[in-house]
Amino acid sequence: MTELTKEMFERASEEQRNAEKIRRPSIKYWPDVWRRLKQNKLAMVGLVLIILITVMAIAGPMISGYTYYEQDYSNINVKPNSDFWFGTDELGRDLFTRTWYGARYSLLIGILAAAIDFTVGILYGGIAGVSSRRVDSIMMRIAEVIYSIPYLLVVILMSVVFSSQGSGTSLFVIILAMTITDWVPMAILVRGQVLQLKEAEYSLASESLGADQGWILRKHIIPNTLGPILVNVTLTIPRAIFAEATLGFLGLGLQAPKSSLGSLANDGLAGMAVGLTYQIIFPALLISLIMFSFNVLGDGLRDALDPRLRK
Amino acid sequence: MENILDVKNLQVSFKTFFGEVEAVRDISFTVGKKETVAIVGESGCGKSVTASSIMQLLPMPPAFYKGGQILFKGEDIVKKTEREMQHIRGSKISMVFQDPMTSLNPTMKIGRQIVEGLMKHQHLSKKEANKKAIEMLKLVSVPQPEKRVNQYPHEFSGGMRQRVMIALAMVSNPELLIADEPTTALDVTVQAQILDLMKELQDKLNMSIILITHDLGVVADMSDKVIVMYAGQIVEQGTVNDIFKNPMHPYTIKLLASVPRLNMKRDESLNYIEGTPPDLYIPPKGCAFFDRCDHAMKVCKDYMPDPEYHSKEHYSRCWLNHPLAKDVRREGSVR
Amino acid sequence: MKKYLLKRFVMSIITLWAIVTITFFLMHAIPGNPFAKEGKMPPVVYENLQKKYGLDKPLYQQYLIYLGNLVRGDFGESMKSRVETVNDMIERGFPVSARLGAQALVFALIFGPALGAMAALYQNKMPDYISMIVAIIGISVPSFVMGTFLIQFVAKNVSFLPIGGWGEFKHTILPSFALGLMPLATMARLMRSSMLEVLNQDYIKTAKSKGLTKFAVIMKHAVRNAILPVVSVLGITISNLLVGSFVIEKIFGIPGLGMFFVKSIGNRDYTLIMGTTVFYALILVLMLLLVDITYMLVDPRIRLTEEGH
């Protein structure tokens, strides 16, 4: 140790003392969420795949030079080659175009369904959350009853009812069917958040510390509510896509020549039976990829939004 | 007095995303037989980490022993394997945790939880175990023990649960009990009961206690020796009398002043210590209390003082003890 | 507890009634006449058919009659099959579907939570990655994709595994696997996160402080508590299995209830659609009730709060 001198035992000035107050770098919520999301390689793979698939769903049907409905009887059941990258089906339609065209519908359905679930769920859950205990309890009972009806059963029933024989199901009906019970988890989630936040100790604490309502909303309520909702939305999309694909696979999808990934897989199943495996592989692979991407992104988001998991 | 525990230069750190957090920075103390040692300090001062490290209960990683020894009856706990620790935990050293509401398994019957450790150590039959559980509940004065053993934690109040926790810790007659803030989560009236119970059991069972707390009222009641920790270091240590009658470190003095007193005047406000303890991921070079101390000197910023003994068992680590600090001492009239 | 059970039971009945009602009116809201598509038929035959299915009566009467029949366990006649009633078809198809569903559920229940627990215990290590890869495949690959791939790449190459059909145990292996994979994955993920949470609880520290072995801490304290959320989603899992079986039965050509259902959709056999839907709902509501009771038995806290203490 160095020599101790008399001066060293003089009082320290205020500045010297304040200079010592080094704090851990404070971390803002959203940038931190993004930082953690970026660290999650799987989630990033999902995000990149979603972007790629979306781009291809928009551009894909245009770049092959074939349309999704054009039938070419001289090129029936052609295996993938340089002309037909994914091959053709039994009517000689280009499967590359049809697959991306189907992806377009699948994504559209997923996103629309999520948007509707989101809107209905927030409205219903929000109203239940702020209503009197009695109204809230009745609303939640109703939601519970609706939710205990098996999702896909309703979807199937709806598409049976609202489409006449052999004509396929319209996009509107498919989305209606998708969302008719699936808004419930969102509503329950939102209601829970609203109730929790109504009582939350930390917003009470802020209030007693003199924070105004807007500040409470911005700093506490929105970050805490938005996280779980965002995750729920991300996970609703693959659920809707999956339901639609199942519908298509059961022959209840969009009317031909329109296609979704599910109906393409259904067509491909017939092809597979006669040895034309490529007809099912591409749509099946693509739908799995879409499901994978949204699921890992949703998971990553959930982990990133939970500061308790901060490492 | 024979020492049952001898902690020497213990250093415990955590690896985090931002770097290493030095939670315990070179502390040494001893616990004698039948002695009660209190470790006091604000939250985050390293007292709970110290307690857990004696049982090797810290999650490793991220925690790790960076240096030093924890000698329990001459054997170094730092070097013990997990398997060896299993023979020490619950049988020779036991622990009572802060929050009785979360420290008991919600899906297991109380009786079972009490004797579970014993059944492992002593191979009891079911009937004997049940008898023992009832006996333990009687010992900690839980009414209707025969009925209570078959209940679940949520059927107990906070105070009753803490009694159960104590029964659970006592069941195999440990030589050392570590009580980590045993009364913090409880009502004031219940606090006193729990402390009395611990004292009573200590006399009956001849054990030593390490009492971790931030409540100096609890300390005065129970302990023989007091260790004051700040930012992972021991800043003052002495007997209860030393600490309460003759505190030497400015932090101890402030800590004592912040205890609410019954004879306080109506308009007198509670004293509290301004500021917050430093973050230990960049531990200060000098005295960690520097920025909150009323008597901070230039030397404090960069140098940590060595312990200065005021009596055989009483020391503090403060530059004010240095002969050169006479003037500051006088003008500030610390003591 | 009795009060709670009663309440739960009443809720189940209401749910069931709601499903029946919705299904009934939906089916009768279908524009056109179920027999219109059958080509020209003599008016007498048409009248007779109308009478046979009660379609000549006002809608509310039809509804009440249908409800009355249901209470007596009569699902009505099939509109397309002249030999079998809906009850016959359910009797024929349900045991097959039930076996398939039960096997898939057992498969998922054995491996799902185990994988999830392993993943949590070895967080960010090899077992974690492996089980999470399995889980991600499980939730990303729809059962119809999994089913077709199993047929294409497994059944065609492994001689003792048949491509489809029903009868012996070997017929059930691939379909059970394809059907059970998604619930398995869901359970594994749920178990993993709930296990990670439980492992951070104070009572785990308490258990360790008793000197228990790691194994005992995990089995008796961690798993016991971590499995609760998994039990609570069993209802939804069973519901998913039910619907998943439509697809799987179609792919593997299994003569179960799902196959009848899919066929009835294909040829617009309204009474059969209605009957199977209601029957599915009944099974599901029963299962949900069962799951609730199970949950009550495994979580002592629920038992008590519902008793009103």
Kindly describe this structure.
The complex is a heterotrimer of chains A (311), B (335) and C (309). Chain A has 12 helices and no strands. The mean pLDDT of chain A is 77. Chain A has helices at 14-19, 29-39, 41-63, 95-130, 133-147, 151-161, 171-182, 184-199, 201-208, 213-249, 261-273, 278-305. Chain A has a single domain, classed as MetI-like (MetI-like fold). By secondary structure, chain B is α/β, with parallel strands linked by helices. Chain B has one domain: 3-Layer(aba) Sandwich (Rossmann fold). Chain B is built from 12 helices and 12 strands. In chain B, 48% of the residues are buried. Chain C has 309 residues and is mainly α. Chain C has a domain at 89-268: MetI-like (MetI-like fold, Orthogonal Bundle), CATH 1.10.3720. Chain C has helices at residues 2-28, 43-52, 59-71, 86-121, 126-140, 143-155, 169-199, 202-209, 214-232, 234-252, 257-266, 270-298, 300-307. The chains are: A mainly alpha (311), B alpha/beta (335), C mainly alpha (309). Chains in contact: A-B, A-C, B-C. Chain A: The chain crosses the membrane at residues 42-63, 105-130, 142-162, 168-190, 229-256, 276-298. Chain A: Keywords: Cell membrane, Membrane, Transmembrane, Transmembrane helix, Transport.
Counting helices, strands and paired strands, the structural category of chain A is: mainly alpha
Using the coordinates above, name the CATH class of chain A: Mainly Alpha
Our measurement of the CA-to-CA distance between the termini of chain C, rounded to an integer number of angstroms, reads: 11 Å
Predict the CATH topology of the domain at 89-268 in chain C: MetI-like fold
Radius of gyration of chain A: 27 Å
- From the N-terminal CA to the C-terminal CA of chain A, the straight-line distance is 37 Å
What is the makeup of the main sheet of chain A? none
